[in-house]
Write a structure and sequence with these properties.
- The complex is a heterodimer of chains A (116) and B (113).
- In chain A, 0% of the residues lie in helices and 53% in strands.
- Chain A has no helices and twelve strands.
- In chain A, the strands form three sheets. In chain A, strands 2, 5, 6, 10, 11 and 12 form a six-stranded mixed beta sheet that branches.
- The radius of gyration of chain A is 14 Å and the shape is globular.
- By secondary structure, chain B is mainly β.
- Chain B is 0% helix and 51% strand.
- Chain B has no helices and eleven strands.
- In chain B, the strands form two sheets. In chain B, strands 2, 4, 5, 6, 9, 10 and 11 form a seven-stranded mixed beta sheet that branches. A four-stranded antiparallel beta sheet of chain B has the order 1-3-8-7, with no helix packed on it.
- Chain B is globular.
- Classes of the chains: A mainly beta (116), B mainly beta (113).
- Chain A binds chain B through residues 9, 33, 35, 42-45, 47, 50, 52, 91, 95, 97, 101-109, and chain B through 31, 33, 35, 40-45, 48, 50, 56, 58, 88, 90, 92, 94, 96-97, 99, 101-102, 104, 106-107.
Chain lengths: 116, 113
């Protein structure tokens, strides 16, 4: 079964600085998708960024980028120029298609605090 | 506006009672999902459905039941068999197949008194 591990339960960053959140996963599949979701205090889940495993180029979305290392099964999220609004829980997720069913497997999350 | 609605936002239940959480989407998505979120546990999959009148158990289905009679609706019933039902419940949907984004509802907080 696929598993997703986020080894940092909590992280903090100074406003305007850069922070990197770690995520590793375990799978035997060769083609899959990876996601980072943000959950602010409102608890509404919001997609931050998506990576397709067959693409070697790392995905970027404005201040958010990923470092995707397929061989190492690593998918870290870098937030540049951190803003107070970035404070949230961040979840890494893996989309599996095993057995003909598509579903997401989530890590346990990293709580990010942004200090002014 | 397209999206997912969940109701109610807060729900209180006495022990031994069944309760049903509503989830409706107008995104014309094929697949719908129910997750449970507990502190420090991330999101755990309860049930999911990829087509009307069909659904599959997720990782923690015991004590829960679902139905999918319409494409846009996927209600979750928390039965009295669920030993620890107090949690935050999230409903989600996406187009089937591919790396399509999974959209989430605002959630329902269930508290057992």
């Amino acid at each position: 079964a696929q598993t997703v591990t986020q080894s940092q339960p909590e992280m903090s960053v100074q406003e305007a600085e850069t922070v990197t959140l770690s995520c590793t996963y375990d799978t035997s599949e060769s083609d899959y998708y990876l996601f980072w979701y943000k959950q602010p205090p409102s608890r509404q889940m919001i997609l931050v960024i998506r990576q397709e495993a067959y693409k070697q180029q790392n995905a970027t979305e404005n201040r958010f980028s990923v470092n995707f290392q397929k061989a190492a099964k690593s998918f870290s999220l870098k937030i540049s120029d951190s803003q107070l609004g970035d404070a949230a829980m961040y979840f890494c997720a893996y989309r599996t298609s095993q057995g003909g069913s598509e579903k997401l497997v989530f890590g346990k999350g990293t709580k990010l605090t942004v200090n002014p | 506006d397209g999206g997912i609605t969940q109701s109610p936002k807060y729900l209180f239940r006495k022990e031994g009672q069944n309760v049903t959480l509503s989830c409706e989407q107008n995104l014309n998505h094929d697949a719908m999902y129910w997750y449970r979120q507990d502190p420090g546990q991330g999101l755990r999959l309860i049930y999911y459905s990829q087509i009307v009148n069909d659904f599959q158990k997720g990782d923690i289905a015991e004590g829960y039941s679902v139905s999918r009679e319409k494409k846009e609706s996927f209600p979750l019933t928390v039965t009295s068999a669920q030993k620890n039902p107090t949690a935050f419940y999230l409903c989600a949907s996406n187009q089937f197949w591919g790396g399509n984004e999974q959209f989430f509802g605002p959630g329902t907080r269930l508290t057992v008194l």
